[in-house]
Fold:
Amino acid sequence: MIDAAALDRIRRLLDGVAVPTVVSLLYRKGLRGMMMQSPKPLNPAAARFVGRAFTVRTIPVREDLVEATARGERPNLQGEATARLGEGDVLVVAMDGETRTAFMGDIMTTHFLAKGAAGAVLDGGVSDAAAIATIPFPVFCCGTAGTPVTSHRLVVDLQAPVGCAGVPVFPGDVVFGDPNGIVVIPAHMAEEIAQAAADREAFEAWVIAQARTGRALKGLYPANDATMKEYEAWKASQG
Structure:
């Protein structure tokens, strides 16, 4: 599990990095399906986050189990997830694209913000979307609904591997979101990928500066050996 210090290093490295940059680096590592495209941010001003995955798995509802939960004969896993989500965590709720029901609303969103969670990602619905859109907490979802989650889904597991919006997510993976979408970085390579992404963004910023001068793209991007040597010399000159 990535500890708080490592998560802070990863977050600082990814500051200013775009999600597609990380997706590209993972693709080159052979991980070709790590970007979630369907969940969208409810508050465009709060669409950037980095945190550890706290996973929630749901299945189609079975009413007898909902009733058992109400009687206290079965754990309330939705409530447990809300209570256990910690500072720096990203709530990842796998709902199989079900948007006729809502896992969370503005009260839970406010609670997550207050406890220092990093964000929430659902491949399903939320309620009170208009209110959530005014809260400075990243919530990415696929739709809105007014009914509680038990109308269509049943929470059956916490902190287990899930598939969310077509992407495999393991507990503790790094989840990184921005207005482009969401990418999941396996925990064991998160610092390596974050460093490579920061380096790539710095290089591409230099390329853009060169392009603004009217320089031809041939040999500049993609960069040939001469361009890379030029960049490395420039970087050294900048300290």
